[in-house]
Write a structure and sequence with these properties.
Strand 5, helix 8 and strand 6 form a beta-alpha-beta unit. The strands form 2 sheets. This protein has a 7-stranded mixed β-sheet, with helices on both faces. Strands 8-9-12-11-10 form a 5-stranded mixed β-sheet. The chain is an alpha/beta fold. The protein is 38% helix and 13% strand. The radius of gyration is 22 Å and the shape is globular. The chain starts with 6 loop residues before the first helix and ends with a helix. The structure holds pyridoxal-5'-phosphate. The site of pyridoxal-5'-phosphate has 16 residues, from helix 4 and helix 5.
Length: 426
């Protein structure tokens, strides 16, 4: 698309432009491989001398369409889609880091990402220091070491729904000469555009609102095009010195601004193989067409439910960044267009009260998921965050009574009636 369309138009139209006589709807290219007339053409593709699809582990036309749509929505220069949000974050980390490198991450992040940084990446020699979202600029900067390769945080954290202070974190990243990577899964580009606030890379679990119907796992890494690895060759030698696995190619010299995306695809994706399937790319692409509409409804329903819960006698506390008395409200208004569909609350009666409430819901279902059209609930302390120690749970903001709600796009009165009758059972 040449013209700079607005977000709603981009969501519908970007990614796939049918030629004359082509299918109007994005085709599902369910093929692992692609045919060429000569061995030379294929060899050039392998040597990255020409562009084209040759094996779906590296690229596929349906997956490429999704990459283009998500990148256009975020305002990036390109993207690499992955099999899940976890794969996307892994690709980000393995593209930027080598053995002995280091990450600074917000401690208010999804439990799976915390585990990846805390337990799995250290097995490859990549360590992470976690910092509190409220840490001062000096404290965050003090966590940076000479081997730190990026700062990572969630724009709206799961499940503590805290809003990232983009200015503070991006200032530290600039000062340290390293990129800021932001997981924008919860607000999506419909509500927050991290590249406009100083992020250099964005990752998503597209499994969440991007798909938004709980039918396709997926993830994506998007490059904002703002970080220049060649400015600091000693800091980023894996971008600025020869890659032996590619006949000594130097990514920054051969691909300039696209260095990160090419390295992520032809080195990390090639070797680790966590690509998105064409079918999931098709489903996610279709569902992205309604993303701005859905995010509006998720947000208005959630605000109505948060206000109802806030004034309910059987509720101890509610955390939703859209409530005007929330400590997150000023940041939320600054960085988000609306406040999304996820909130947490503490029913009276501690852990037992939470269990009674959850078991009494009728419309809302208990599922290990957020961010689809159907209202759902979860008790993180006994599920998604159960691998964390008590101390780690506390640091991630997980209290024993905490119930996470993902408000769907049903009629808000039906949702509120369901919560009301379940609270009556406590
Ligand atoms: N990032 C966030 C904010 C998430 O909420 C999740 C999953 O819940 C992930 C990443 C991981 O995504 P996936 O489940 O697609 O691997």
């Amino acid at each position: 698309m040449n013209k700079k369309y607005r977000l709603e138009t981009v969501a519908v139209q970007a990614g796939y432009e049918p030629g004359n006589g082509d299918p109007r709807v994005l085709p599902i290219v369910q093929s692992t491989t692609f045919k060429y007339d000569s061995a030379g053409e294929l060899a050039d593709l392998f040597d990255l001398k020409s562009a084209g699809h040759f094996y779906t582990r590296l690229s596929n036309p349906t997956v490429e369409a999704l990459e283009k749509k998500m990148s256009a929505l975020e305002g990036g220069i390109g993207a690499v889609a992955a099999s899940s949000g976890q794969s996307a974050t892994t690709i980000l980390a393995l593209t930027l880091c080598e053995e002995g490198d280091h990450i600074v991450a917000s401690s208010a992040i999804y439990g799976g990402t915390f585990n990846l940084f805390r337990h799995t990446l250290p097995k490859l020699g990549i360590k992470t220091t976690f910092v509190d979202l409220d840490a001062s600029e000096e404290e965050i900067f003090a966590a940076v070491t000479p081997r730190t390769k990026f700062i990572f945080a969630e724009s709206l954290s799961n499940p503590s729904v805290r809003v990232l202070d983009f200015e503070k974190f991006s200032r530290v990243a600039r000062k340290a000469g390293i990129p800021l990577a932001v997981d924008n899964t919860f607000p999506t580009p419909a509500l927050c555009r991290p590249f406009e606030f100083g992020a250099d890379f964005v990752v998503h679990s597209t499994t969440k609102y991007a798909d938004g119907h709980a039918c396709a796992l997926g993830g994506i890494v998007i490059d904002g095009g703002s970080f220049d690895f060649s400015k600091n060759p000693e800091k980023f030698p894996s971008f600025t010195s020869p890659d032996e696995s590619y006949h000594g190619m130097v990514y920054t010299e051969a691909f300039g601004k696209m260095a990160f995306l090419v390295k992520a695809r032809v080195q990390v994706m090639r070797d680790i193989g966590m690509m998105m399937s064409p079918m999931n790319a098709f489903l996610t692409s279709m569902n992205l067409e309604t993303l701005p509409l859905r995010m509006e409804r998720h947000s208005s329903n959630a605000l109505a439910l948060a206000k109802f819960l806030e004034s309910h006698p059987k509720v101890d506390w509610v955390k939703y960044p859209g409530l005007s008395d929330s400590p997150e409200f000023s940041k939320a208004v600054k960085y988000l267009k609306a406040f999304g569909g996820v909130m947490t609350f503490g029913p009276k009666g501690g852990r037992q009260g939470a269990e009674k409430f959850l078991n009494s819901l009728k419309l809302a279902k208990i599922v290990t998921h957020v961010a689809d059209t159907r209202t759902c609930v979860l008790h993180p302390a006994s599920t998604t965050h159960r691998q964390l120690s008590d101390d780690e749970q506390k640091k991630s903001g997980i209290l024993p009574e905490l119930v996470r709600i993902s408000v769907g796009i049903e009629n808000s009165e039906d949702i509120i009636e369901d919560f009301s009758q379940a609270l009556d059972e406590i």
